[in-house]
Specification:
Blueprint: E1 16-18, E2 29-34, H1 44-57, E3 66-70, H2 74-86, E4 89-95, H3 100-108, E5 112-116, H4 128-138, E6 142-143, H5 152-168, E7 175-179, H6 184-196, E8 200-206, E9 240-244, H7 246-260, H8 266-279, E10 287-292, H9 306-311, H10 323-327
Parallel strand pairs: 2-10, 3-4, 3-6, 4-5, 7-8, 7-10, 8-9
Antiparallel strand pairs: 1-2
Helix pairs in contact: 1-2, 1-5, 5-6, 7-8
Bound molecules: 4'-deoxy-4'-aminopyridoxal-5'-phosphate.
Protein name: Cystathionine beta-synthase
EC number: 4.2.1.22
Cofactor: pyridoxal 5'-phosphate
Amino acid sequence: MRVAETILDTIGNTPLVKLNHVTEGIAATVLAKIEYVNPGGSVKDRIAIKIIDAAEAEGKLKPGGTIVEPTSGNTGVGLALVAQQRGYRCVFVCPDKVGEDKINVLKAYGAEVVMTPTSVPPDHPESYYSVSDRLAAEIPGAYKPNQYENLNGPASHYESTGPEIWRDTDGTVTHFVAGVGTGGTISGTGRYLREVGDVTVIGADPEGSVYSGGTGRPYLVEGVGEDMWPGAYDPKVPHQIIAVTDAESFEMTTRLALEEGLLVGGSSGMAVVAAIKAAKDLGPEHTVVVLLPDGGRGYLGKIFNEGWMRSYGFAPVAEEKTVGDVLS
Ligand code: PMP
């Protein structure tokens, strides 16, 4: 029988899928690593299991303990899944720009969610960093994974994402592209690939974020970009950082669903824009792997919503039709 003992055993070993349409005019092979097939729906399941395993091994998380974390959703889902299976309570702190669907998913897994304003600086007492510090200090038996500083995040990618890409491309990968949020994905995967091969590592960053020289000016794409430099990010790993605008990211996100059958989030669109920019000047002997962190179902009220897209001046994926429109 091929049976997983628990849902946690299905984390990782995600597929590489060739992009065939959005890559028109590109000679290099561009492969997307589809992280939404992880059980929690994102790449963050990988860091969740590694971080909790390590916290248990180090005695930082004890039976009956509580996990407290500031998270934009995906890390929370991963942590909630692992915590639920192992009997821990979860309290998450989320900035209010995060979509309601993502919050409801956290609650569905049994987590408690506290919302904080996006518009305050990180050192403000109401910021999601400050609120989570306070909860972690005041809840007995609390453990704060702190994905921004926890080196088990990049380590999980060094141990799983990187080796999977090397194995599944038979060592032919020449470029790796990923969006940068905590920096865990690019730092761990990139470090592995640079050690085993001659792989160029490229970070994708929302225009305005610190990684591409900005100050952290608000942008709409979720899960990537920063207004500070997290410890999980190793700036020595990427050879290059490419800044991508919200408009470019959202246009590509809608095209991935329409043309490639990939219903993914905005940071996936952003990463593919950067991958295509990087691949433009490459010949057919190159293989670019781009990581798509999550699925599009958490963004149905935003990127895939006509009114929301129009309200920010972006072209919606499809306009609603009348029966007459369809028959004409
Ligand atoms: N995209 C999404 C949707 C995310 O939730 C995250 C994690 N914050 C990322 C990209 C970036 O991954 P990392 O934190 O490993 O840099």
